[in-house]
Amino acid sequence: MVATENGASESDNILRISKNKNISFWARAATNFLQGITGKDGVEKKIFDEIVISALGAAIPEAASVVGLVQKNKVAEAVKIETKYAEIDRSKRPQILVTLKRNPDYVPPPKKEKPSKVVVPPMPERLEGEKMEKKMKKVMKEGGKRGVEIEGAADMGGLKYFCTKVEEPAGDLDMLVESVKAMNAKCDPSEEERKGGSGAIGKTVLSMADNDNLCIVSYVPEKELEECDAKEWLKYILQMCGASGTELREDSTAHYAMVCVKNDGDKGIFAIKMRDYVIQHANAFLRSKGLVPEVDDDDDDEMVFGDDDFP
Questions:
Q1: Neighbours of 269 (CB within 10 A)
Q2: What is the Cα–Cα distance from 180 to 185, expressed in whole angstroms?
Q3: Which of 56, 143, 115, 47 minimizes the C-alpha distance to 251?
Q4: 119 CB contacts (<8 Å, ≥6 apart)?
Q5: What is the dihedral of CA 254, 208, 260, 115, to 10 degrees?
Q6: What is the mean pLDDT of residues 234-244?
Q7: What pairs with residue 3 in β-bridges?
Q8: Which residues pair with 215 in a beta bridge?
Q9: Does residue 94 have a pLDDT over 90?
Q10: Is the sign of the CA dihedral 227, 231, 232, 238 positive or negative?
């Protein structure tokens, strides 16, 4: 029996879940086995009418999330769930086995076009003059410091995404973009104070100005673009906050997406109310994609993925 890189074997229909890959990877692997995929050699791989999701010990919650995501996407239906103890190296470990039956009516979502080139928004000329020098130093310093904090939190918790807010941009969208760029900047080892370093972490960052507007930037690193789209992420946040009619800045991309939401009493849009829900909805989008672990509905604590990580 030869094991493949996705945890299944070529001679059976068992997908063995482990913690070395994220939930979306395993859900994609299950979809490929149930609905078919063409390999790099151009040969179509075998389609299974049923597969078994198997997991041991600490990987059981991941298996449950994979099953939930596959069913949510209407790829297959769970027809049998079995729990038992498996004997591994003379010790018994809890095991779950979930049989998934293929949905013959499954329709795959359209493939997203991967951006041919990642474009970082340039700094506007108005922020480069002498009059803005002092202010921009504060903006960049705060962004750089926050980048280091995010990098540290990611290293400790294994996070790929983070949600936070900053003060210095004070509701100026251009300054907020520069703050995010400072978070993503590569650390310069020659500098005495470490800055930036979180370019590998996807993030949603917000800033307000006197409760009149709310500026938000969503950023997704290049290596994550196949699984997450910054524009889609930000549009979801706006929709859930009741501001779906607000247009993103025209230069928004799958890599950097930006918006400034202004108060509109006629539409019931108030920046101060939205602020309290941006991080919550940003995390809900990530969970719907299987990019972060599920949490209990009764638990509103965003400590795992937001500012409350910081002491």
A1: 19
A2: 9
A3: 115
A4: 251, 253, 255, 256
A5: -10
A6: 94
A7: 9
A8: 207, 260
A9: yes
A10: positive
**Under 8 Å CB-to-CB from 302, ≥6 apart: which residues?**
163, 279, 280, 283, 308
The answer to whether the beta carbons of residues 56 and 88 sit under 8 Å apart is: yes
Q: In the predicted model, is pLDDT for residue 55 greater than 60?
A: yes
What residue spans define the domains of the chain? 14-102, 125-309
Place of tokens 């006629």: 266
d(CA 218, CA 259): 9
* C-alpha of 94 from chain center: 30
DSSP 187: P
Whether the per-residue pLDDT at 297 is higher than 70: the answer is no
Q: What is the CATH number of domain 14-102?
A: 3.30.110.20
63 CB-near residues (< 8 Å, 6+ apart): 17, 26, 53, 54, 55, 96, 98
Q: State how far the Cα of 22 lies from the Cα of 286, in Å rounded to an integer.
A: 12
C-beta of residue 95 within 8 angstroms of C-beta of residue 56: yes
Kindly report the number of other CB atoms within 10 A of residue 266's CB atom: 5
Query: How much is the pLDDT for 36?
Result: 78
Of 108, 99, 170, the residue nearest 139 (C-alpha): 170
CATH hierarchy code of domain 125-309: 3.10.310.40
Beta carbons within 8 Å of 101's beta carbon, 6+ residues apart: 49, 50, 76, 77, 78, 79
For the stretch 175-208, what's the b/e string if a residue is b when 16 or more beta carbons lie within 10 angstroms of its beta carbon? Answer: bbbbbbbbbbbebeeeeeeebbbbbebbbbbbbb
Strand, helix or coil at 25? Answer: helix
Identify the CA nearest to 62 among candidates 12, 1, 15, 113.
15
Residue 9 has pLDDT above 70, yes or no: no
Cβ burial 248-264 (10 Å sphere, 16+ → b, else e):
bbeebbbbbbbbbbeee
Q: How does residue 115 score in pLDDT terms, banded at 50, 70 and 90?
A: low
> Of the candidates 290, 310, 307, which has an alpha carbon nearest to the alpha carbon of residue 162?
307
Measured between alpha carbons, how far is 248 from 32 in angstroms, rounded to an integer? Answer: 34
